[in-house]
Amino acid sequence: MREEILSLKNQAIAQISAAKSAEDLEELRIAYLGRSGKLTELFKRIKSVPSEEKKLVGVLINEAKNALTSLLSERKNSLKESARDWFDPTIPGIKPPRGHLHLVTHAIDEIANTFAQIGFVRVRYPEVEWDWFAFGGLNMPKDHPARDEWETFFVEGLNHPKFGEMVLTPQTSSGQLREMQRVKTPPIRMINIAKCYRRQIDVSHFPMFHQFEGLVIDEGISIAHLKGTLDYFARNFFGKERKTRLRPFHFQFTEPSFEVDITCGICEGKGCKVCKGGWLELGGAGMVHPVVLKNGGIDPSKYTGFAFGWGVERTYMMKSGLSIPDIRLLYSSGLQFLRQF
Ligand code: PHE
């Protein structure tokens, strides 16, 4: 029995010394010292040992038990130590990722705030809309060739007896008639910022983009008010020294119609490589057509108004001087791109 005890003890020492984890140690503890562990079993056999050997065997087993117990706890501590080696509490922690607003959301906020300063109220109207609001009521009857400009998406199978088919709004001008119907009696000072959809995709077009549309209707509103509003926007959004000009153009829903240009931010209107002639094109504007006023339930013999509608993405890029090589990047959800802003 003495041999047996010693060899069991040596075997246990070898295994405990080689253990690699706290779980291994615990397994070994149970295997040797547990209730039916190998050493415990030896204890149980003491009663069958001849009496002259009993005392010695008892001492040996106890000694083995103490040795294993202290070796186990020693190994346990040293495993803990080495686990702590790679933990350096002085290293700065890893910050949880923190997002920010999308570039276009920033642009929308900024545009809305600039117009809010001069009393424009931000509104939003349906982006899936009846034809009449998007075209018909804006003086573009069905089959009018001007509609081609707007590359429209149609929603199949929906037809309103009065308002016609359903479309994805190709322009925020669809909000003009909705606003007239809502307010009923002018004054109206609306800024409608919304998504627009057109069947176009390339480096400078995306099927979904944003426009902001201004609409002012009151007694005695003239082109001078339009020009004043555009100049205010140019100064406050683009910079003090920027100026606008109106160029004659054509839209079915405004008369007269204009395209609005702004002096180039690089050469201040003198002409440079970027702008060529000193001016950059912002977008459309004009005096609300009397037919559109009538369609909106407003008396054109009493009230006049102006409207303008431009692309948010384009306007913001012109302000920030960002040269984004492909507009599709804005909506690609690529974090590498978006994190830059
Ligand atoms: N809605 C026109 C467009 O999408 C722009 C515009 C708005 C023109 C308001 C005149 C008045 O191009």
Overview of this structure, please?
It is a single chain. The chain has 2 domains: 2-82; 103-338, BirA Bifunctional Protein, domain 2. It has 11 helices and 10 strands. The two termini are 79 Å apart. It is elongated, with a radius of gyration of 40 Å. Strands 1-5-6-10-9-8-7 form a 7-stranded mixed sheet, sandwiched between helices. The chain has a 3-stranded antiparallel sheet with strand order 2-4-3. The protein is 40% helix and 22% strand. The protein has helices at residues 2-18, 22-33, 38-45, 51-85, 103-116, 131-134, 174-183, 223-238, 290-295, 312-320, 335-338; strands at residues 121-123, 128-130, 154-160, 164-168, 188-197, 208-218, 244-251, 254-263, 279-288, 304-311. By secondary structure, the protein is of the alpha+beta class. Bound molecules: phenylalanine. Phenylalanine (PHE) binds at residues 171, 173, 213, 251, 254, 283-286, 307-309.
**Biggest sheet details:** 7 strands, mixed
Rg of Cα set: 40 Å
Percent range of helical residues: 25-40%
CATH superfamily of the largest domain: Bira Bifunctional Protein, Domain 2
Series of secondary-structure elements, N-terminal to C-terminal:
HHHHHEEHEEHEEHEEEHEHH
Outline type: elongated
Query: What do we call the CATH topology of the largest domain?
Result: BirA Bifunctional Protein, domain 2
Features:
about 350 residues, binds phenylalanine, protein biosynthesis, alpha+beta, BirA Bifunctional Protein, domain 2, phenylalanine-tRNA ligase activity, cytoplasm, 11 helices, tRNA binding, three-stranded antiparallel β-sheet
Question: How would you concisely characterize the structure shown here?
Answer:
The protein is built from 11 helices and 10 strands.
